[in-house]
Amino acid sequence: MRSSAPHGFADRRAAGRELASRIAVLAPEQPLVLGLARGGIPVAYEISQALDAPLDVLVARKIGAPGNPEFGIGAIAEGEPPMLDTDTVRWLKISDADLQRALARARAEVAARVARYRGDRPLEITGRTVIVVDDGIATGGTARAALHAVRAQGPRRLVLAVPVGVPATLRELAAVADEVVCLAAPEQMRAVGAWYGDFSQTTDDEVLTLLAARRSAEPATRSEEIRVPIGKTGSIVGDLRVPPGATGLVIFAHGSGSSRLSPRNRDVAAVLNDRGLATLLIDLLTPTEAGSRANVFDIPLLAGRVVQAADWAAGDPAVGALPVGIFGASTGAGAALWAAADLGDRVRAVVSRGGRPDLAGPRLAEVRAAVLLIVGGRDEAVLALNRDAQRALPVPSELAIVPGATHLFEEPGALEDVAGRAADWFAEHLTR
Questions:
Q1: What SS3 string covers 327-344?
Q2: How far is CA 405 from CA 18, 215, 410, 414, in A?
Q3: At what angle do helices 299-314 and 332-343 cross, to 10 degrees?
Q4: 61, 203, 371, 430: least surrounded by Cβ within 10 Å?
Q5: Residue from 210, 170, 169, 183 nearest 39 by CA
Q6: What per-residue confidence (pLDDT) applies to 292?
């Protein structure tokens, strides 16, 4: 836990500016800043602006005792079960019926605030650094519920940042968060509001205004055509898409005769982009080379081009620091695994769609990345080849069979199933 000498704050936004200076070191991690509604939003807004990071809202609230809603008997955060103070519930002799009514009121209020502030837009937390922000911590009930809700979604790093808090409570919350940053932690604290010159209630309109202001300032997805040099004068062409806050890069190794314009691979890439992963769809052969059928099945040549694409990406400021995965389709799966063997620990995950991993041959034993092999249930010949290849892999691997699907996954819902499985695999293995 980090804290500094106690002092007062003019208002929440002034506190946010000062707090931002303490956690500016997190800016390179492209964190997601989550303000607890409502009072945490003005503080979080200033942090988001200073770190040039996206801002969103996290709804958590106190569960009030029956007949005395200002007296807390627990807390609840969106998407998570309530956290009750069972000792207090027993001490107050609250009946089960009264308790259920109190919980229903709290759930309804949480749902209403989520709908009001964020609509049906989900939080994108998995694999990211997340900074949870409130305007102060006393008993810590709502902050604890909020941290558990975020932790359940698999952040890479979870930080709690508050201007002021009770030391004992902050120490308890440090067991849930990876780090707690607090500007003032007085041993004797009458109330959070006593540390502010202006502690007037944050309104819904203010919350919506601040959220809209930061959303309009968020960077757009980077989308551009790139060229990877090969040899002395040649190059291969790729399409790079980098969503804001990308947590990994997936390079696509296309199969026999297909290109970066493959509709199936572009559909999969779009799903990965929605999950916060950058994608590089690249033609592994020049137009002249693609005219030779022999080149289309030259796995060492194709794998070498994947390696060159990975080398190019390593030097790009937007994606150079991101963990790398490879998605291979058809014969491209053999190239993907061969390249993964060449790249060693630089590649964390490989996904094969209806692929020929057997074409990587003896290089399978040298793969260090986690491998997911996706095959249609009716693609029997390729399924047998994938089973054989899986036995040769010395790394964690899974064989996922899409029921009723043929080689090209043209059946309704089949390609969506592939994309979802691939996104889950990359999200798990590129964010550790």
A1: EEECCHHHHHHHHHHHHH
A2: 56, 40, 7, 6
A3: 50
A4: 203
A5: 210
A6: 87
Contact 157, 29 (CB under 8 A): yes
Count Cβ atoms below 10 Å from residue 352 Cβ, excluding itself.
Answer: 32
Both tokens of residue 112?
């209403």
pLDDT at 5: 44
Q: Are 178 and 157 in contact (CB under 8 A)?
A: yes
More confident of the two residues 271 and 3: 271
Q: For the segment 246-298, what is each residue's pLDDT rounded down to a tens digit?
A: 899 999 998 766 778 888 889 999 999 988 899 999 999 988 888 888 888 89
Phi, psi (rounded to 5 degrees) for 35: -90, 135
* CA pair distance 426, 430, nearest whole angstrom: 5
Structural domains of the chain, with CATH? 2-217 (3.40.50.2020), 222-429 (3.40.50.1820)
What residue has token string 């949480």?
A: 110
pLDDT at 220: 66
Side chain identity at residue 147, one-letter code:
L
pTM more than 0.85: no
Q: E-strand spans in 44-190?
A: 55-58, 60-65, 68-77, 83-84, 129-133, 157-164, 179-184
Helix (H, G, I), strand (E, B) or coil at 282: strand
End-to-end CA distance of the chain: give it in Å, rounded: 23
CB 376 within 8 A of CB 351: no
